[in-house]
């Protein structure tokens, strides 16, 4: 298995951002796929994505088998909320592992939440997604979206072996459609895909990111 580069890796923070200033669009206005409400916030920030990410998801729909649709869970996340998630999870890891150094805590935390300064969701570049059948029921992906490495015993990792063959096939179906349109996966979370952010730039060898963290306005 190829080595996983974590979001905390200094190689990610070292990638320059040349933000192309594309707008953040509300995916609900374009109605391309069902939008789940579990991460909904009062301002609707969660439903926003950069234009180039949304257009790629619209293209990805056509690559799925008949009757299978993308279910949008979360896109843009304000920097303050990202910081809150990161610090809360790091605090939990520190408490559970009192012997860990701050570097160990930061690395382990970044398996599940990105450090705020490089966060792809805060750039409007990342999207958490799953698949639903024609009746709206979520396909079996082996774990729920947002299962932590601890709670899922590592089954949240995209290439995990401790899931059954049906779930592996469903992850593959999602991956084939999203990879085809240029998105990259964070290998510790089967549901997390991005385009244009620093992680994408490193994974694709692009040299710079085109979307950096920003406020919604
Ligand atoms: C917290 C989880 N849903 C998530 O979004 N994780 C990724 C790695 C992130 O914070 O960018
Ligand atoms: Zn995500």
From TrEMBL:
Its EC number is 3.4.13.22. Zn(2+) binds at residues 121, 128, 192. InterPro entries: A_A_dipeptidase (IPR000755), Zn_M74/Hedgehog-like (IPR009045). HAMAP family: A_A_dipeptidase. The active site is at 189 (proton donor/acceptor). Belongs to the peptidase M15D family. It holds the Pfam family Peptidase_M15. CDD domains: D-Ala-D-Ala_dipeptidase_like. It comes from the Bacteria. The keyword Protease applies. This is D-alanyl-D-alanine dipeptidase. It comes from Streptomyces exfoliatus. Transmembrane segments: none annotated. Keywords: Cell wall biogenesis/degradation, Dipeptidase, Hydrolase, Metal-binding, Metalloprotease, Protease, Zinc. Binds 1 zinc ion per subunit. It is an enzyme of class 3 (hydrolase). It catalyses: D-alanyl-D-alanine + H2O = 2 D-alanine. Catalyzes hydrolysis of the D-alanyl-D-alanine dipeptide. The record marks 77 as: Transition state stabilizer. Its cofactor is Zn(2+).
